[in-house]
């Protein structure tokens, strides 16, 4: 399942550089996550790095983008192949 940034975001900018897939970007009001690029760091790390560094704990799972670990791994592999 992809992650989402909630409106509790304080725009501290610590999550964006931690994302290995460049899925996090600055939105109009708060940072946002592109669900097509978010793999919850599968293929890169054991845990989502954005969640690890977020000081206000505002990055939960996105219930609108439910994915299994296998699906996240497949997405990671597609992203890596496209960037090669």
TrEMBL record:
Keywords assigned by UniProt, alphabetized: 4Fe-4S, Iron, Iron-sulfur, Metal-binding
Xref: InterPro entries: 4Fe4S_Fe-S-bd (IPR017896), 4Fe4S_Fe_S_CS (IPR017900), PSI_iron-sulfur_center (IPR050157), YfhL-like (IPR047927)
Domain of life according to the entry: Bacteria
Name assigned to this protein: YfhL family 4Fe-4S dicluster ferredoxin
Keyword Metal-binding: yes
Residue span(s) of domain 4Fe-4S ferredoxin-type: 1-29, 31-64
